[in-house]
Amino acid sequence: MKKSLSGNAGSYQEKRSSIFVSFLLGLIGLLMGVTVMVLSNSVTVFSDFLRNISLFVAVLVSWLAVRRVAKGVTPNYNYGYGKLENLSSLVVATMMVISIVIIVYAVIERFQHPASLGGMGVGIGVVFSGIAGIVNAWMWRRNRQIAKRQSSPIVESLWRLYRMKTVSTLCVFLTLGLSLVFRDYSWAVYIDPVGSIAVLGFLAFSVYGVISMSVYDLLDQTLDESLQLVILRELATRFEEYVAIHGVRSRRSGGDVYIQILLEFDGDQKMAEVQKAIDEMKFALEKKIPGSQVLIAPTMRY
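Above: the chain sequence. Below: its structure as tokens.
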């Protein structure tokens, strides 16, 4: 029987539920985006549509990754499939980078050849973007709350994406609204490409956040300073129970945290006493660091 070391089933069910909702919303967003893009002739809406495509593909990859990660430990993967969460986050970032390149080209083209926006499409776009902004803000908040409860690169990427999506949707709303209000002015044709630049900026900011979070974990960077302080504080509190510390190692694998501590104990102690001290430290650390698996091994100075 396989034992999952990747958290309880409830946490993965919550992830799958959130990703499934994101998948449905992404599909609806694509259909709405195509309609508005064709009717309005807006490069800002086009930029937003590309962002929706990247989100849709990212959510699909995330869903596949979470399904695999939920299997936990197998004979061939003793640490489970947690790294797939980091890899799927990089897929998200890759899709966003591709979108950035296309948007840059479209913005340059629109500045060189400015064009007015379609009246009916602009009006529909204002309504759609207003509704989308409210939905995106709700998903941003929902995924942020899940990320606070459990450490997960996928959920972390999703709430960052929805944060970016909320702000960029607001840009679309303002761009289309201003284009509609000032449509009789000659300079109004530049409102659209300027709005696209704003969307581009938020997209680039999100790419940086997703990449910086995932790459470090893939390279097995040690835990951040706040969690290391938790470990050191616990060891300092129990300094009378061991003789010396010979090493502390830590790493992340998806939403899981692995901590290895090598301690030297008094040679005159009974193994039962040593094991009791180890169990108490292990329990305390795993309680203070969600998703952690602590291994404390007795060792000697060489």
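The first strand starts at residue 244 and ends at 253.
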